[in-house]
Amino acid sequence: MVASTGKVGLGTKFKVGDGESPEAFTPVVNVTAINLSGRSVEEVDFTHLASTGGFREFRPGFKDPGEIKITCHYNPSDATLNGTTGLEAKLNSGATFNWQIDMSGAGFNYMLYGFGYVSGGDFTFTGEDPINFEVTIRVSGQIEEGPSA
């Protein structure tokens, strides 16, 4: 049997750029999950009256880079989360920013990076769990990949 080369996500960081030159990236605190989803490719129908066997013919069109959902234990005094300087502030202002998902802490010298904006933010309050803040970041443009910085 061949051993798996996979790793758990423990140590992965979501980082937000400051927009300066050179750009500095700050890890968001208390992140419990990062979910990159919704990536897709539009289908363009190229079917015509002489399509072989009456079968539809498709080709790829525009690509949707999807969105990133980050779940955090919320702390309103933390600068990476709050409504003054953090992700909550970016939701309120509509600011765009560069982001990184750095997997070096999980044992890979690898990261995904791109550009986007906060398109949603949901709080969950219960008596049994930490206050959770789920932030949705709409990715704009192609997601790049490369070695961790």
Brief overview:
The protein has 149 residues and is mainly β. It has one domain (13-147): Factor Xa Inhibitor (Irregular), CATH 4.10.410.
What do these coordinates show?
This protein is mainly beta. The protein has a single domain, classed as Irregular (Factor Xa Inhibitor). The protein contains one helix and ten strands; from the N terminus they run ββββββαββββ. The strands form two sheets. Strands 1, 2, 3, 6, 7, 8, 9 and 10 form an eight-stranded antiparallel sheet that branches. The protein has a two-stranded antiparallel ribbon with strand order 4-5. The longest helix has 7 residues, at 87-93. The mean pLDDT is 96.
Distance between the termini: 34 Å
- Overall average residue pLDDT: 96
- The gross shape turns out to be globular
The Rg value, from CA coordinates, equals 19 Å
In total, how many beta strands? 10
The portion of residues assigned to helices is under 10%
Q: What is the CATH C level class, in words?
A: Few Secondary Structures
Number of helices: 1
Strand content: 35-45%
Characteristic terms for this protein:
single chain; 149 residues; mainly beta; eight-stranded antiparallel beta sheet; two-stranded antiparallel sheet; 1 helix; 5% helix; 45% strand; globular
